[in-house]
């Protein structure tokens, strides 16, 4: 039933989806009060200089953007690549060409749940000739997971389930690709992480992208996404490292955290504040070792 509802909504024109989003965001904010306390706490602790009235206004803007992004993702499943070219401007497009040596070397692109992270993948498909892949965590809702994967893969991107990332890298180590990794989700207690000071709190970050960069030598790029007006975005690409061998995996993750924080502060309503981002304390996690990933990748032959 839920999957069928997604398909039905995807047939609506984008203008109808925005009208629906306006209604939905009002309900989220005032009727259902969706994760109201989590969002309020996250905003208050991240921006202690804002007074309660400013926090409330920011929270309302977040609800509208969350509704817009959700329905845009659904509506985008029936849009051609030209649609995403028109809707998303990209600064520093040449950076991917440069770091990939014009498509002869893989590049890792780190991004956050900012703006419209799904449309960013489609915009890249319109720009770059290189094969694309994205790392994901399976959603709890089977219908949402199925729809999400179909949406992301519609222009040829390959889905890599997080636990299979190292194995996939081995299999495709000789195929230059653009590999997209969302790095701002909350890791589990048993996952190895890097801790960084982020939005006024000690925050765990997945070390996976940094570990893989160190193990493979792939350059790392950060992609920030800002909403310029309803349904339109600007993505800015910046280099985290062109040569991962010159810095540690902790430095790679730290640079990512700093770039993400900078982007969030520039446009705070565009980030996913409803996540339970700060669930664990620093003593509950450990750092990841590059040697573990390197040995796994180097010990297995390429297909």
What would you say this structure looks like, in words?
The chain is globular. It has one domain (81-299): 3-Layer(aba) Sandwich (Glycerol-3-phosphate (1)-acyltransferase). Helix 3 crosses helix 4 (52-75) and helix 5 packs across helix 7 (117-127). It has a seven-stranded mixed beta sheet with strand order 1-9-8-2-5-3-4, sandwiched between helices. 47% of the residues lie in helices and 18% in strands. It has helices at 2-10, 14-30, 36-46, 52-75, 81-87, 94-99, 117-127, 142-153, 165-171, 208-216, 249-266, 290-299, and strands at residues 88-91, 107-111, 132-136, 158-161, 178-182, 193-198, 201-206, 220-229, 232-241. The model is unreliable at 284-303 (pLDDT under 50). It has twelve helices and nine strands. It is of the alpha/beta class. 40% of the residues are buried.
In short:
This protein has 303 residues and is an alpha/beta fold.
Judged by helices, strands and strand pairing, the structural class is: alpha/beta
* E-strand count: 9
CATH class term: Alpha Beta
Q: How far apart are the first and last residues' alpha carbons, in Å?
A: 40 Å
